[in-house]
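Dear colleagues,

I hope this message finds you well. In preparation for our joint manuscript, I am sending the Ceramide kinase (Cyclopterus lumpus) sequence together with its predicted structure, so that both groups work from identical material. I would be grateful if you could confirm receipt.
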Amino acid sequence: DVTFHCANEELCEQWIQVANEQLALLTNRPKSLLVYINPFGGKQCGKRIYEQKVAPMFRRASISADVIVTERANHARDHLKTEANLDKYDGVVCVGGDGMFSEVLHGLVTRIQTDNGVDQNQPDAELVPCSLRIGIIPAGELWSLYRIKKTYPRINTSRTDSHVNPSYG
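The corresponding structure tokens are as follows:
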């Protein structure tokens, strides 16, 4: 669980009540997430970070999560491309470094285009936006998102919202 440190128990209860009330007002917030954890990247602390820091916050916010600890390179990408039932999730979260984020992004882009009959290898193909939110919990040694622009130059990585949308311009 998440721990609040406060000498005044009544004030602490107020914090919890207000937090729960605010969460209840957010009708468009994610409630079900697919989480991929890279246990090997960075300092091999992704699983610990998720279990000790992230999972308690998700539970407190009543967010359910299906967690997959990846076992090999491209495990998340391959799972997203072919097996994941994306209809049951509001978003996908990756815990790891830039490699894990790259896997999730590649898997989602490929899956969405394939499901919509778009050949993403055609230069003039009009890509279909992904409606799923993507969350990133950094747990790698390096974090270099610039590679995304090299791989998917039509994806606008400067957007401040959490949706992956093609940029046609």
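For the figure legend, we might mention the following. The two ends are 45 Å apart (CA to CA). The chain has a mean pLDDT of 82.

With kind regards,
E.M.
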